[in-house]
Write a structure and sequence with these properties.
Distance between the termini: 23 Å
Radius of gyration: 22 Å
Number of helices: 15
Strand content: under 5%
Number of strands: 0
Shape: globular
Largest sheet: none
Order of helices and strands: HHHHHHHHHHHHHHH
Structural class: mainly alpha
Length: 458
């Protein structure tokens, strides 16, 4: 392999990726702040937030997955210099995201009774129910924000979502702190305070994003003279055609991790708390791969718009190599610090929680060793998936995701978690198996598809 031709692309890849990575980390920080602040209240509260967020993440995966349809359309139109198509994709995408956000909010509120059928600890369910009501409402601004973000990403303007999320995080940390613990004039609301902090920050995230894009010299003209008369069935169908399989693909993946939360919850509340700690840390490192996922989607779409498929392959592979290198570094860090990191998520000074804390740390440490390996597979599958979305190839990846996660991954997680001594570690071995199968077959799909495109354009 001639690495120099790929290395030439690294600087531009990083330039596009780093704002997305920082923005994604900002998104994740909202969850980490919730977990750390709530973890100080106790293991039961931490498990309740974990259970509540499992419902929210399922819905959010549908919304975020659907919204990714906007980026390749905008990025390809940008390469083709088709301003009308860019405007159309933005307006139609934002409308669909708004409708979807409202639908997901209603769906999650109606789905709450499922918790009583999931064999979760009663004290965890009782705390999770009111938490879900408020955080479910935050799905509306989150999905609307995604409409703005995917539009800006498509124009290679990746830094604006980073700015919006950072500003939202300042709002989130303030309201979380004062509402969870009852500081100053604010009531002490516990995990309900965490929910309200999340809602307020996510509303502000949309406000910040709208303001930033509306006043950007390049993008402000796309905000003028919006009318429902401009809405066309053809563009609604195009976004839905790309968005629906992407939403299902993301749902299949997130649902597997959600099933891991439920499975560990049915083992014990300490297993569920340990799972939440390991998952939070793995999600943090996964955001770096997600930055390269967006980069792959933008750059592959641009090359597709130019009909330059040979360069498309070079660009895509350069992103794959960068992501792989980064995930290997994180894997090594997880191995070195696997016994230290879990301490930061628990109140180690509470004598009443000494036994629970010791068990949570012991389990979480083992999970981080599995996570060290699986994030390499996870990083590969997500960047290849970004490249395939850039090619607007979404149906086959959806089927690959279903088979990898639900025909391979979940049965292994269920069997090893419920019927062997591995318990929570067994659940994570199933996650590793599913992600590895997904990475392998998505790459095979990309290789075959691009090879065919090059041959057809010779």
């Amino acid at each position: 392999m001639n690495l120099s031709k790929y290395a030439n692309e690294f600087s531009y890849n990083i330039k596009l990726a780093y704002p997305v990575i920082l923005g994604m980390l900002g998104h994740t920080l909202i969850g980490i702040v919730d977990n750390i602040m709530v973890g100080n209240l106790g293991a039961t509260e931490l498990a309740a937030v974990s259970l509540g967020n499992s419902f929210i993440f399922l819905a959010m995966s549908l919304g975020i997955g659907f919204s990714t349809a906007i980026t390749p359309i905008v990025a390809q139109a940008d390469a083709e210099k088709d301003d009308k198509k860019i405007r159309s994709a933005f307006h139609h995408g934002l409308l669909l995201c708004t409708v979807l956000g409202v639908c997901l909010f209603i769906l999650i509120v109606l789905a709450k009774p499922i918790m009583n059928l999931m064999h979760q600890p009663k004290e965890v369910v009782d705390l999770a129910a009111p938490y879900i009501d408020w955080v479910a409402f935050s799905l509306i601004p989150v999905i609307i924000y995604q409409g703005y973000k995917q539009f800006a990403d498509g124009l290679s303007q990746t830094k604006y979502s980073m700015y919006a999320i950072f500003m939202a995080n300042v709002v989130h940390i303030f309201f979380n702190y004062v509402l969870i613990y009852g500081i100053w004039i604010f009531p002490k609301l516990g995990i309900l305070g965490a929910a309200l902090g999340t809602v307020i920050s996510r509303i502000m995230m949309v406000v910040f994003m709208h303001f930033l894009l509306r006043h950007n010299e390049r993008m402000k003209h796309y905000f003028k003279n919006f009318s429902f008369k401009e809405i066309r069935k053809s563009m609604l169908k195009k976004i839905t055609y790309l968005g629906f399989p992407s939403a299902l693909q993301m749902l299949f993946e997130v649902a597997l991790f959600t099933a891991a939360i439920w499975l560990t919850g049915s083992i014990s509340k300490n297993s569920q708390a340990a799972n939440q700690i390991a998952l939070t840390l793995a999600t943090f490192t996964f955001m770096f791969a997600m930055g390269f996922n967006v980069t792959a989607m933008i750059r592959v779409s641009n090359q597709k718009g130019k009909n330059d498929f040979k360069n498309l392959i070079i660009v895509a592979r350069s992103i794959f190599i960068l992501a792989l290198f980064l995930e290997i570094i994180f894997a090594l860090l997880f191995v070195v610090f696997h016994t230290i990191l879990p301490h930061y998520f628990l109140n180690m000074n509470d004598s009443a929680q000494v036994l629970d804390n010791a068990e949570v740390i012991a389990i979480a440490s083992k999970l981080l060793l599995v996570a060290a390996v699986f994030q390499i597979s996870d990083g590969i599958q997500v960047v290849v998936l970004g490249a395939l979305r850039g090619l607007q190839d979404v149906k086959i990846p959806m089927y690959i995701a279903f088979v990898a996660y639900w025909i391979v991954g979940f049965p292994i997680s269920f069997y090893l978690g419920k019927y062997t001594e591995l318990k929570a570690v067994g659940v994570w071995i199933g996650l590793l198996a599913g992600l590895t199968i997904a990475a392998l077959f998505l790459y095979i799909r990309f290789h075959k598809l691009t090879k065919k495109l090059v041959l057809n354009n010779q």
